[in-house]
Design goal:
Radius of gyration: 21 Å
CATH class of the domain at 23-159 and 258-273: Alpha Beta
Strand order of the largest sheet: 3-2-4-7-1-8-11-10-9
Largest sheet: 9 strands, mixed
CATH topology of the domain at 23-159 and 258-273: Peroxisomal Thiolase, Chain A, domain 1
Number of helices: 15
Order of helices and strands: EHEHHEHEHHHHHEEEHEHEHHHHEE
Shape: globular
Distance between the termini: 38 Å
């Protein structure tokens, strides 16, 4: 079955988003976070964490279960678990729903929603999923949507036992990708692009150190984050420069750490948001990139154009420009590609080749350029939801020690790689 993508804003020329300022986020909840599930404690399973996050988001908005009429989630993390041999437990049992995923139908049954009418269990990863939720509310498919994104990390199953990695053959098109390692060479491709970037602009891997250290600093100010909870110490430049090599020049500290957690959000109409507990955070636009390069391996120029095109879609649909964005939380799963977002969107005037110089400036939350004030996935663990929750908190003024000192009226957050992603624009004001 081909997934419906007609709701996407994935091409230029669509004009201002028809629901601009008419949809708002009014609730957020984050579950407990561990390195991985122990396989025993059910309230720390995928389903247990999803329920925790969902109930927190509903309470944060001041709503009840009866107010929710839309349930939206992603099976993205389940796809990652299926790399390992099936099933997880020895049969017999009837389902893994609640263990490696938490579908809309499962959450509906477990929490007992009475008025849910819109169910979406097969949304893409969180980047496009947040846009889909805003579009669903704007289009009237539901009035108040509960949206959750679990990140599942089961012991021995996060790619480590990928059957493809132990095959003696690489059949079909995988012959051109699998030999290059993890995720069918995707990370190798990103490293080739990073090397192209360094050669073109006279940069080096060491230029990422200030970014990495600042992300950890911000992450330690995020109380529910993995490092704040489990490894509460700051990295040093020496730590980073001497980090264990993963795939040259990528070191362990360039990579976000897989964790077991769930984030949840409440989307509703701007009209409904007026009466709720929290200050509404309005959605001004959402935009997606779904294309790839001309071959199995992308180039630096293709990544740069992909993000530049995404930025044009965002400015066109929101009616704003780069100078209007106060909070910027792009994806940082691998620090070797984060500069593509900074330069493609030209946040704070950063142009192609200037990101490493920008990192060396003052990017602290107290400073003039609070880049990735969330701490990102690198600073909090691979949860992905922090990019959105921090954006919401900054606009609400509730980010605590991470609260920026510059203006915080608008925020831009998004997830996944430069050529495949989804971004969303938030604002304190509906227009």
């Amino acid at each position: 079955m081909v997934s419906d993508t007609s709701w996407m804003r994935d091409r230029e020329g669509l004009g201002v988003w028809e629901h601009r300022g008419k949809v708002a986020v009014v609730g957020w909840g984050q579950s407990h976070m561990d390195r991985r599930w122990d396989g025993v404690t059910m309230d720390r399973s995928c389903g247990g964490l999803a329920k925790e996050a969902c109930l927190k988001a509903i309470a944060d908005a001041g709503l009840s279960l009866d107010d929710i009429d839309g349930l939206i989630t992603s099976a993205d993390t389940r796809a990652e678990q299926t790399w390992a041999p099936r099933p997880y437990f020895a049969p017999p049992y009837d389902t893994e729903d609640g263990l490696i995923k938490a579908s809309a139908e499962w959450i509906n049954r477990e929490l007992g929603f009475k008025n849910a009418k819109y169910f979406k269990s097969d949304a893409s990863y969180i980047g496009p999923m947040m846009g889909l939720a805003a579009q669903a509310v704007g289009d009237g498919l539901c009035e108040t949507a509960l949206v959750w994104y679990p990140m599942v990390n089961l012991e021995g199953r996060y790619g480590h036992n990928n059957p493809q990695n132990s095959n003696e053959e690489a059949p079909g098109s995988s012959a051109f990708t699998l030999p290059w390692g993890y995720q069918s060479g995707a990370m190798f491709n990103n490293l080739v692009i990073f090397q192209q970037y360094c050669k073109k602009y006279g940069k080096s891997h060491e230029g990422l150190a200030p970014l990495c250290l600042n992300l950890r600093r911000n992450g330690l100010m995020t109380p529910w984050g993995y490092y704040a909870m489990h490894e509460p110490h700051q990295l040093t430049t020496d730590d980073y420069l001497n980090g264990r090599m993963i795939e040259e020049p990528l070191v362990i500290f360039d990579c976000d750490r897989p964790v077991n957690t769930c984030g949840a959000f409440i989307f509703t109409t701007a009209e409904r948001a007026k009466d709720l507990r929290q200050k509404p955070v309005y959605v001004l636009n959402h935009a997606q990139n779904t294309g790839k390069g001309r071959s199995t391996m992308s180039t630096l120029e293709e990544h740069q154009e992909a993000v530049s095109s995404l930025a044009r879609k965002m400015w066109e649909g929101s009616g704003l420009g780069a100078a209007d964005v106060d909070i910027f939380n792009p994806y940082d799963g691998y620090l070797t590609f984060t500069q593509q977002f900074l330069e493609g969107f030209q946040w704070h005037g950063v142009k192609f080749g200037e990101a490493h110089d920008f990192y060396a400036d003052d990017i602290r939350v107290e400073g003039p350029h609070p880049f990735l004030s969330s701490g990102g996935n690198n600073g909090t663990g691979r949860n992905r939801s922090v990019l959105y929750s921090d954006s919401i908190q900054q606009l609400r003024g509730t980010a605590g020690p991470r609260q920026v000192t510059v203006r915080a009226d608008t925020a831009l957050a998004g997830c996944n790689t430069p050529d495949s992603n989804g971004f969303i624009m938030f604002s304190k004001h509906p227009s």
